[in-house]
Amino acid sequence: MLNMLWPIGAHTETDGELWLGGCAVSELAKTFGTPLYVFDEATLRTRARTYQEALRRHYPASAQAAYASKAYLCLAIAQLFEEEGLDLDVVSSGELHVALQAGFPAERIHFHGNNKSPAELALALDAGIGRIVVDNFYELETLAGMVAARADRPVSVWLRLSPGVQAHTHAHIQTGQVDTKFGFDIKSGDAERAIVAAMQAPGLLLVGLHAHIGSQIYEAEDLAVATARLIEFAAQMRDRHGFVLQELSPGGGWGVPMTESDPAAPIEPYIAMLCEAVAATCRAAELALPHLVLEPGRSLVAPSAVALYTVGARKEIPGVRTYVSVDGGMADNIRPALYGAQYAALHIANSQLQGTERELHSARGTQHEIVTIAGKFCESGDILIRDVKLPRLAPGDLLAIPMAGAYTLAMSSNYNLARRPAVVLVNQGEARLIQRREAFDDLLARDLPLHRGTPRAAGAKATFRKYQALGNDYIVLDPEQWPEPPTPEQIRRICDRHAGVGSDGILWGPIERGAPFGVRLFNPDGGEFEKSGNGLRIFARYLWDQRLPAGPDFDIDTPGGRVTAHVLDAAGSRIAMDMGRLSFDSPKIGLAGSKREVVEEDVEVDGRQVRVTTVTIGNPHCVIFSDGQSSDVADAFAKSSAELAQRVGPKLEYLPLYPNRTNVQFAQVIDRHTLRIEIWERGAGYTLASGTSSCAAAGAAIRTGRCASPVTVQMPGGTMLVEVDADWAARLTGTVDFVCGGELGSSLLRDS
Assuming Cys at both sites, which of 54, 408, 446, 701 could form a disulfide with 268, CB separation 3.0 to 4.6 Å? Predict the structure, then answer.
């Protein structure tokens, strides 16, 4: 029987195996490696529901719990708490970005922090988050100026106050006393001045007050006193300035037991006392009950996770201490070194031992000793647990540390260039990886080599992945191996179908590892171009295969503008792409001559008249329909549109009408919703398929009344569906397949 420190349902068997969420931890360690953080889904959901249900029982007005995500945030945790109906607190643009990528509703996000930059505030305003918690006069002035300049809807804010209450906890996690970097101090008069300034600022809507007096608090009385001071202050501001308290957040900070000797810290009695303090103080001050928001962090996630380590070296100092080292430490859990946090531990014997060795080890397991659990990092302070009584540990054993879910991973680092650990979520016998272990390449992701001429970081492999999409094939070169784009000569060598890998072009990206994912596109001749429908769908498949997007819908930034990808199946084999808006406006296309729409306009090519329609979707396209042409062009279509594309395409590409050259489509209308096209691409030549060409041809057919959306575009390389909205926004859908990957030979990498 395990004690209160462990997740719901955790138990050990007679063989010493520890089970979490229906999973044996030795199997988890074998599958995912160690150090490993294991979150129990049932514990996360149960504790979230405990908060929500206790607020409903004990507070007579509206109330809400908001997860203080600084304790630990990743996509899956944000999504789980969103499903449980919690709001979310963030304290940085990074946390806000992860929350938004997880699909967390912006209106349920609160933005805290004592030094939010103008860029962070702009991000919050653009996202339309629910509440900005203003911490100081600089921020109040900055935000007021930004909101006034935007002339948007009013922005709802809380003011963070310092109520002058010193919580009984470690000095490093006290935040509500007078001497603190956080909030407007009530005693000095700063809080009142902030109330007046916020109420007078155009565009700001002061709806609430907030305080947070510290973390790992066991005495609800401290929180009740701080809450009462906020309400009493609100009543004074009502009487002096007409302030109406609509929302109140006394923060979070409720503690959890960390060792067997710590007292239990049940959630409901703490909430009951806090709610009664709010209700009583409001009655005394004749204030209506505000909407109450609690902000639990540690008490939600700490009890939900167990850290697993593998035992390694042992050092015995007779009469002094015995150190046993594990394969993690202060890089994944700095709390013991930072403020003396204490933990318990459980020993799980090495299940891989056989025969006599297993018997000897089992006998040792009955012997207990006092040891200090040390980490593997080059600091004397890298100690996880001092003087803990455990069975005798041997190399290969596992050590499980409970209460590991809060402020461990959130404060983890790459000290000694350690790779941060994997995280799994367990429930009913299923283990899901929600954060992969960092790879060695991740350690180089931000680095650039001293000598910029090399195509990749020193020592890294020059790897590639090749995909095909309806006749187009592209090679993806990732900046993690290629810090700078390949040179034109390298591109020509790599794309050569005889001496190189062979492809229709190179995609260099993602330039950033988070959405929007930037990419640059190169033709096989080494020239750069703006946009490619099939190329971008291939790039989206690459991102999907690398598990970089947070969900099936994500943005990609191209030189021709931002597009949105939609992955339509789990494998990523079918992808739709919002390509942006088609335009027939000559300045946007980059045409020579007067401003106009070139729709069914006659141009002379090689001594003959050809009727063209010109359109852009980030790059220029010239569309020639088989009908309405002169007899010789119509005859050429009838004979072979492929031959026509190869013979006339190069001449149209360099027509003076197109100073930047153009892509060319030769189109035949099959019916109102079907086109057949042949393609000549600038810089690439005759091409079997093209996404942007499909969009351009479909748009031109709709613009000239030949077709109606949706249009199925048939090409020698395959078929693509193009949908065009009334505002000329185009979406194309088709398949993408992985072809091959590998390492490029040195002969392809030289520049001459």
Answer: 54
